[in-house]
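One-letter codes give the sequence; each number marks local geometry. A record appears below:


***
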Amino acid sequence: MKTSTSNFALKGLAALLVVLVLGECFTRLVPPHEDMSPPALKAQEDRTNLLSIPSLFSWRLLARQKHDVYFTKEDSFRFDLPEDYAHKVKWHINSHGYRGPEFAWEKPAGTTRIVIYGGSFVFDIRTVEGMDWPRQAEKILRERGHQVEIINAGIPGLMSFDAVGRLFTEGHDLDPDYVVICNKWNDLKYFRSSEPLSWQMHPWAVQSDPRFEYQGALDRWLGGVSQLYCRLRYRHYESMRPPEFVDHVNRSDFKNRPTPEALRQYRLHFQMFADTARDLGVKPILMTQPLLIRRDNPPEAREIIEYEKVEFSHEQLCEATEQADSAVRSVAAGKHVPLIDGSASRVAGKIPFFTDQVHLNQTGSLEFAHVVADELEKIIP
């Protein structure tokens, strides 16, 4: 009886080994032949993402090293991808940690330098390299005879207070003639709370991801010898990840309202930005951020507005955006600072110009570049 059981166990083990060997051979011989080990996956992840570092004076900064960010499959619905899109650059980050080509840290003689601060809207994440609206506005102004240089200082995720910190800790070293602040959507995420902002914001930090990091010596050894194992471990950790976006079926159920405390904090950021710029001998320009959000948005527009990210219903979100714009306009008027009223521009609220509630598409970016160039031309010499 024991012999029979042992033979059965040995046969089962042998069958398992055959399956594993065949599976390993199939994995290595049948396309795609991509390496699925954690180090290889981490290299691919770095290739398709911005390299960021924590910062004491803003939520995060882009790494001060040249790096290109390449297209991914997830970009397909936002970009008109070329045939070999996987090998095409989406964004270029220069050695100073700004989107765009290299520029001299010292301002060239005879040049009017403009630095534009903001989040992903200013960075313009839905446009390919060279087509972000700050760069296109620069091109338009140069074609009109203005010797200008516009630096895109947008970083995805940053709020209005980040612009203040970046201006007095680094921006002034760029010797800009004008600095522009354009932030709203990221700030709106905190408009529903009456808590001080210091208790709501937490430092940005690189999160450990087991998909790209070995979890012990055995995991490292198995990952080094078996691609079948690497694929199985990746699927396991991928299945454990929470969804990035969970739709809220009843979007009208949100009962939050923008609080006076949050609005007062938001206004303070723009006041400080204007005062800091002037104390540094720089001319400030305030800009209201154009969004798709409008009280008269049709159903097709409301379908792509991510109310879940701010936890406001449509009416409450409209109230919040209107109050934010009013605050920026009042600061500009009270401090006699030039205002580019993007929220009142021909781009705001128009579905053909947006990919979601905040980010412009290629057409919208070019159109807004013309808006900004027209307004800057009234301000700069």
